[in-house]
Amino acid sequence: MRQLSDIRGFTPALLSQLGKLSIHTPQALLLHLPLRYLDETRVTLIRDLRLGEQAQIEGVVVHNEVSYKPRKMLNVHVQDDSGILNLRFVHFYPSQIAAMQVGTRLRAFGEVRPGFFGVEMVHPQQRKVSEETPVSTALTPVYPTAAGVSQNTLRKAVQRVLTQDYLQETLPAWVYQDIHLPDFASSVQLLHQPTPETALNTLEDRSHPAWQRLAFDELLAQQLSMRLHYARRKQARAPAIAPSRTLVPALCAQLPFALTPAQQKVGAEITHDLTQPHPMQRLLQGDVGSGKTIVACLAALQLIEQGWQVAIMAPTEILAEQHYKKMHGWLTPLGIDVAWLTGSQPKRERAQSLARIASGEAMLAVGTHALFQDEVQFKQLGLAIVDEQHRFGVEQRLALRRKGQQHAIEPHQLMMSATPIPRTLSMSYYADLDVSVIDELPPGRTPVVTKLVADDRREEILQRVREACALGHQAYWVCPLIEESEALQLQTANDTYAYMQGAFPELQVGLVHGRMKPAEKQAVMQAFAANHLHLLVATTVIEVGVDVPNASLMVIDHAERMGLSQLHQLRGRVGRGAAKSTCILLYSKQQCSKIGRARLKVIYENTDGFVIAQADLQIRGPGELLGTRQSGVPMLKIADLERDAELLVHAKQKADALLARAPQSVEVHLQRWLSQGAEWVKV
Predict the structure, then answer these.
(1) How far is Cα 562 from Cα 565, in angstroms, rounded to an integer?
(2) Following CA atoms 78, 79, 84, 89 in sequence, which dihedral angle do they give, to the nearest 10 degrees?
(3) Quick one: which of 19, 415, 434, 605 has the most CB atoms within 10 Å?
(4) pLDDT tens for residues 230-239?
């Protein structure tokens, strides 16, 4: 691909400036699109200016003065045939004072405000002109920039590459004409140089057909990259596993519950994948408490029966240990050795686990990120199960998968998530995965009642905790998330714990937080699970993997500080038994932002994880929802999944058609849009 350094006029200094914006090619420069536009195509008379609107005026400087009270500022009065306007500068240089001397003809663009001298503009854009200087014939683009890179530099750089040499069409006409979109060249030219008659609102809300064409192209490139990755995976080799005849029936016979129809359905999908000679890459979605763990266990048994090892990786020790205990309880009666591996294990115990995994004695290994360290060797890994997969980076997931790459055979991969993925996110960022959904909860799970309570009613809530514990139930008190400092969060947890011990002398109160040693944390959680503790004060470390059926009350302190997914996960820690359960969202009236209020409204009104995830996507955008997966998937710069949902449907359809009818166009299109395409389709 041609570089900017190959083009005349792009000096080392200019290349260095553009490098700050990661712009190194003509295509990257063309696709560095404006954030907004200034209408400098007309000059407005000063008497016709309207407060609050942006406008351009032209006149002669009749007064130029630096004043020092109440603070240093520069006031420049500009006069035209209809009146006088004050230009006020709080930050200025001597060169600016000199450039706006009395008698100079200026053109100024800015927002009109009321001021001490009448109407004024504060820090307007201004330049020296003559009476013959023509006004601009196009709207003026304002680009995203970085320190030391001026708008003028970007505008001139874009003009140099805005030629047919770099605007070639990558797609056959039928791809975009079928959905009534303009060609690429005219779309890019219009966005960089919109004519005065172009409706400014359609440019700013990105509904203009030119914006739509580029959003479509970007979504199409993403779809194509996902399709190619999917196709590559189908060409790789993995162990083809016949359905289980002994271990799965044996486990199902000893379970104290029957699988739900939804669990049976996704189990059949996984079984079918495992019979194929290429690697399964399936995402298993299920709301909090829907029973994903038993489905994963049944998948593991199918591999173990054929002599292959299985690894289960979880993001926290609490969740990993939860899996280990369940797997150990289910599989030990079947004669299967389950190994436990975390970073905090005693050296001797860890060495024993490593030896059992390497020899193949342990058929199932459960642990945290410690599982993909170099020292961990599997004899024959056939399946990697990753829970809460969005918490792990692409490289971490790849490292675990590489543990099983022997003799050109890859392990199957099953990813699990209790954070449901909205449809548009699933169609775009997860298009390379097969997705299974457990869409019902096991029978006997009681719905959790959610209450919103302002923190001026804290005493009432303390009384609710006292009453619940007096009835023999248990309660969680979740401390606020403090983004600025883990130390502050720790202090808050300790302070809350001390306060609760004083407030409830008759109750046994426990404390758990992320900084505790694993053994301490484990001891507290075991005491709570065994009903030796009435109240557990905790940080968000209990968000996943804690299962205490007797806990029927949760209070989330400063709930407005937490994300929707986190609130939903926390709420899922109660309602696991037969008792009626309540989750109280305690919020601060003073500190609750507009977004905080929106989140609380969603969580209060909904218990469906998919509805909550969709609302989360609208509030936060895809970046945060994807977690660390985003480092392995192209993030969208132009398209917006909510706004452009219809274009995404078209892109999905056209990607299949393009691969079938014009495969030569695919590579050209991907080169334009995915400069690091090979990196982006790794996982």
Answers:
(1) 8
(2) 0
(3) 415
(4) 888 888 899 9
